[in-house]
Structure formats: structure tokens, C-alpha cells
Specification:
InterPro entries: Cyclodeamin/CycHdrlase, Formintransfe-cycloase-like_sf. Pfam families: FTCD_C. It comes from Baileyella intestinalis. This is Cyclodeaminase/cyclohydrolase family protein. By secondary structure, the chain is an all-alpha fold. It has one domain: Four Helix Bundle (Hemerythrin (Met), subunit A) (Up-down Bundle). It has six helices and no strands. α2 runs parallel beside α4. The protein is elongated. The relative contact order is 0.16.
Length: about 200
């Protein structure tokens, strides 16, 4: 599993000629780093008398953050697994008409989980940005720059994952479903940008 690798091993694997891990896994890991930073700020605020009025918010943020962190990390390997099936489908023999049709069907089938894995990263990223925004002005002010970096990472995860969604929806057998997922992803892109700007004070 990718998440059990050392950082050096992962980066070396990512930079190799192997088709996976790729952009989808990198998007999920970027999101994990973002929410981890948000949690770090919460942990440096928890129990501080100066921020006691926000203690419930901080504790809730840590609980939500932990769930998001686990989901992001699971997304790293989920993307690799999903892409592996897509790659296997594209590698199928396609000489005869029957083989071509079997290959098309396999690609269409594999494209759905390959799109849904990064789509989950997008959903987690939006939730992470909302969580980060909720801590602005209510957490350790000495670490506000870490919330900025968290927001940049989380928005980057959403944006990066979106392009992995778009890369697969075109192969859906159910074209309507693909179009609906694309539209939802576009709306999420807009929302993530707005959230990031709100956190950065733009």
C-alpha cells in the first residue's frame, strides 16, 4: 500500500515510469496534508484558556478532521487501484470486432470507480475547507499562516482531483451520469475557490 511507504519511497514511485500512482493519488495526499495542518492548529488551540469559548468547536473540528484525514489517506490507494483497472482495460487485445467491444465495455466499467475515487477527494476537500474556515479567528492566532497553507493544499486537492474526474467521465457507458458528475465537479471547483479565498481574506 502506498500509505505504508516512506516519503522517499513514495516520491520515487511517483516519479517512475509506472502509470500509478499518478495525479489522483497525489491529489488525495495533498488533501491529507491540508487537513493535517488544520488539525495541527486545532491541537495547538485545544485546552488553551485564551480560546476556551471555542473549545467545543475545536474538539468537533478534531473529530471531523480525523475522519477526513483517514478518508484522504484511503483515497491515495483507492485511486491507484481504480486506475490500475482502467490501465488493464486499455491494454486488452482489440484486434477483432468482438475484442474491441469487450475492451470498450471494460473501459466503460472501469471508468466509473476511476472517476468516483477522485470525486470523493473533491468532497473531502470541500468539507476540509469549510472546517478550516470555521477555525479562522477562533484558533491559535500564531498559527494562522498554517491555516492559509491548509486552505491552499485543500483547494489544490479539489482542483487536482477534478481533472481526474473529467478524465474518466467521458468513458462512462451512461453518458447522462457522466455529464451530471462533470457538472457537480465544476460546481465544487467554484465552491472550493470561494472557500480558499475567504480563508485567505481575498
Amino acid at each position: 500500500m502506498l500509505i505504508n511507504m516512506s516519503l522517499k519511497e513514495y516520491i520515487n514511485d511517483l516519479s517512475s515510469d509506472s502509470p500509478a500512482p499518478g495525479g489522483g493519488a497525489a491529489a488525495a495526499l495533498t488533501g491529507a496534508q491540508g487537513i493535517a495542518l488544520t488539525m495541527m492548529v486545532a491541537n495547538h488551540t485545544k485546552g488553551k484558556k485564551k480560546y476556551s469559548e471555542f473549545e467545543d468547536l475545536i474538539c468537533e473540528a478534531l473529530d471531523k478532521g480525523e475522519k477526513l484525514k483517514k478518508s484522504f489517506l484511503a483515497g491515495v490507494d483507492a485511486d491507484k487501484e481504480a486506475f490500475g483497472k482502467v490501465a488493464a482495460a486499455y491494454a486488452m487485445v482489440h484486434g477483432t470486432e468482438e475484442e474491441k467491444e469487450a475492451r470498450r465495455q471494460a473501459i466503460a466499467e472501469a471508468s466509473v470507480p476511476a472517476a468516483m475515487a477522485p470525486f470523493q477527494v473533491m468532497k473531502d476537500g470541500i468539507e476540509g475547507l469549510e472546517l478550516t474556515l470555521s477555525l479562522m479567528g477562533k484558533s491559535n492566532k500564531n498559527l494562522v499562516s498554517d491555516l492559509y497553507v491548509a486552505a491552499i493544499h485543500l483547494e489544490g486537492a479539489v482542483t487536482s482531483a477534478a481533472y481526474n474526474v473529467f478524465a474518466n467521465t467521458g468513458s462512462f457507458k451512461d453518458k447522462k451520469k457522466g455529464e451530471m458528475l462533470d457538472e457537480e465537479a465544476r460546481q465544487m471547483l467554484k465552491r472550493s475557490s470561494e472557500l480558499k479565498d475567504s480563508i485567505l481574506g481575498r
